[in-house]
Specification:
Shape: elongated
Oligomer: single chain
CATH topology: MetI-like fold
Low-confidence stretches: 258-265
Number of strands: 0
Strand content: under 5%
Distance between the termini: 14 Å
CATH architecture: Orthogonal Bundle
Length: about 260
Amino acid sequence: MARRFDILGLVGLVLLVAVWQLLTLALPLISLPHPAHVAVRIAEDFVVADYLLFYGLPETGLLDSMLYTTGNVLIAVVLGATVGTVCGLVTARFDLIRSVIDPVLLVLGTIPILVLAPFFLIWFGTGRTSAVLLVAIYVAVILYIYAQRAASTLDPVYEDAAYTLGASRRRVIWDVLIKGTVPQILGGIRIALAGAWGLEAIAELLGAQQGIGKIVQVLAGSIDMEGIFAALLVLGILAVVFDAFTARFFSYISAWSVEARTGGG
């Protein structure tokens, strides 16, 4: 069934823009530009922004930077989610491996991820590698926790029943363990993806050759608030669009779990 139009979401968006507009009446434009001016700036700079060449950026326009940031986020999420999920599922079933990996992942989880940024910039340079690895570690820690918790809370009666019916270990892993933990793992991926956008932008801001974060960094030096707001708004819209697409896609591929719980066919 098609999802109904989210009228409340639209109302919230309109209210946000209205509050923004009202705040511009009380604050100077140098600190908070008008929404209309930011929208015009996005339109003007979306494909080509010649003035960015003066800052040494290799590509011009918000579109090129948006594609660069998007590529980094997707690579990092795929890499981090794969490593975190596999490690989480394995450690949930093997205590010895869990006792080795748990301290490492939990320590990484307690350290603010941005603390690692300077080290990554020194080790891997200011290119794509450092930003991708930084975000991938963040995603891996989240998915490790989600996958491990999902596997640990899975009722063992299902695995026992599968073995009783003659299922092989490989079949139990695929049909019981993996499929039984998919809904929670997908939820963890969505949460990790939401935070990955901001972390990627910050990683680019601290040290990168291009990307939305790099644009924010160079424009902050010239106090170009319209340009900064335009870049951040594009990043926010991108994150919202990806979240909506991800939620729809995950709902589709995990629809069987809903049917299983409700008894639908």
